Every structure is written in structure tokens, then in C-alpha cells.
């Protein structure tokens, strides 16, 4: 059951998107699994930094059917696709931060984003690159869902970015650190920045995250 507390929390977290400068106007959308088969999703055309309860949709994750509220975001298909595929995540955030969006429009995109330790630690050792598909299209929904099956961060060519996380803090942390990495890459210029070596990333896995690399 969706309660007033769920809506209040969703509004608070959606407004963080603006505070973190992760999007402009209606360019982003966010979803939150509140029950096993129920998610709240920002409504179509809504501005996350000033979203209100009457701009929030509730949909079944299993089939995408709206059960309450307004029409969900045009990107709801990939939000729900990720939530269906990834039982370990509960939040999906689509955003268009300044530097990461610049990188998404580059002809020759980086193949390695590990310019700082926070990227492999939180965003993932690899960042999925998704070819351009029309926003809101079934092709985009399928491509994003596939890209985030094994990774947590995706760069959408000529479009924006998507991250998924176990909770809001996890998703926001990935978005902010990925934006920072892209800022470093853009400001440094092509070929003028260093990335962590595989050994250095393995050391992070072992000594900071307490796991072994795959």
C-alpha cells in the first residue's frame, strides 16, 4: 500500500536531483520500488526539483500498468525493465548533468572512466555505453534494461545517463561521482588524463570494498 509517507519521501528525493544539479526542467525522471511489484515514478513532463504529489505515478513493475496517479514518465519502460531485471536495486535515476551529457555527445567517447577511485568503487568498474534511440521508444527501453543488467551506470549517446541503486543515496552517489569523472575528462581534454590501472582497481576491491574482482 502506498502511503503519504511514501509520497513525501519520493518528493524529497526527487527534489535532490535539482539540488545536486543533475538535470534541467523536465529532462530527468526517477523511480522507486516501494513494494515487490509496485513502484512510484515521476509523471510525464514533471520537473523533479519542484514535483508535487499530483505529478507522481504508481505502476505495477511486472506489467507496467498504472494503478494510481498520473501518466508515468515516457521513460517508465526502462525504469520498470531495470526494476524487473535487477531485484537487488530499488531506485532508477535518469538524469542529464552537464559534463556527463557533454561526454554522451562526443564522437569518440572514453572507454575507461576510472579517473578517480570513486568511479570503480561506486559507479562500477565498467560504464555501459548505449547507442542513440529515440527517447521513450521501446528500443531505448530494451537497450537500457540490457545495459544495466550487469552494470549500474549507463551513458546514453546524445541523450543522458541512467544509474540504479539499492536506495536513493546509492543512486545519487553514483550519479554525482559519474558527473565528477566526466568533468575531469572534459576539462583535461582528449588523451590528457590518467585512469586507474587494473591492479589499482583490484586493490580498491580488496582493501576498500572487501571483495575480490571478477
From TrEMBL:
Domain Class II aldolase/adducin N-terminal, first and last residues per copy: 8-186
Swiss-Prot/TrEMBL keywords: Lyase, Metal-binding
Any one GO CC term of the record: cytosol
Entry's Gene Ontology BP terms: pentose catabolic process
Metal-binding keyword on record: yes
Gene Ontology molecular function: aldehyde-lyase activity; metal ion binding
InterPro entries recorded: Aldolase_class_II_sugar_metab (IPR050197), Aldolase_II/adducin_N (IPR001303), Aldolase_II/adducin_N_sf (IPR036409)
Signal sequence interval, chain numbering: none
Alphabetical list of PANTHER family matching this protein: 3-OXO-TETRONATE 4-PHOSPHATE DECARBOXYLASE-RELATED (PTHR22789:SF0), FUCULOSE PHOSPHATE ALDOLASE (PTHR22789)
Name of the protein: Ribulose-5-phosphate 4-epimerase/fuculose-1-phosphate aldolase
Species whose genome carries this gene: Dysgonomonas alginatilytica
Organism lineage: Bacteria, Pseudomonadati, Bacteroidota, Bacteroidia, Bacteroidales
Amino acid at each position: 500500500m502506498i502511503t503519504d509517507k511514501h509520497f513525501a519521501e519520493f518528493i524529497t528525493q526527487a527534489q535532490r536531483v535539482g539540488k545536486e544539479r543533475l538535470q534541467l526542467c523536465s529532462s530527468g525522471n526517477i523511480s522507486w520500488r516501494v513494494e515487490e511489484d509496485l513502484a512510484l515514478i515521476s509523471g510525464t513532463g514533471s520537473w523533479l526539483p519542484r514535483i508535487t504529489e499530483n505529478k507522481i505515478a504508481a505502476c505495477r513493475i511486472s506489467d507496467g500498468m498504472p494503478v494510481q496517479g498520473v501518466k508515468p514518465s515516457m521513460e517508465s519502460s526502462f525504469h520498470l525493465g531495470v526494476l524487473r531485471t535487477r531485484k537487488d536495486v530499488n531506485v532508477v535515476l535518469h538524469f542529464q548533468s552537464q559534463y556527463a551529457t557533454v561526454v554522451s555527445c562526443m564522437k569518440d567517447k572514453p572507454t575507461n572512466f576510472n579517473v578517480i577511485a570513486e568511479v570503480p568503487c561506486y559507479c562500477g568498474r565498467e560504464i555501459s555505453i548505449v547507442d542513440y534511440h529515440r527517447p521513450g521508444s521501446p528500443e531505448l527501453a530494451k537497450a537500457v534494461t540490457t545495459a544495466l543488467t550487469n552494470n549500474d551506470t549507463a551513458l546514453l549517446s546524445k541523450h543522458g545517463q541512467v544509474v540504479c541503486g539499492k536506495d536513493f543515496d546509492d543512486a545519487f552517489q553514483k550519479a554525482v561521482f559519474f558527473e565528477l569523472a566526466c568533468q575531469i575528462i572534459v576539462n583535461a581534454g582528449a588523451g590528457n588524463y590518467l585512469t586507474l590501472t587494473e591492479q589499482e582497481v583490484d586493490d580498491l576491491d580488496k582493501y576498500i570494498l572487501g571483495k575480490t574482482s571478477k
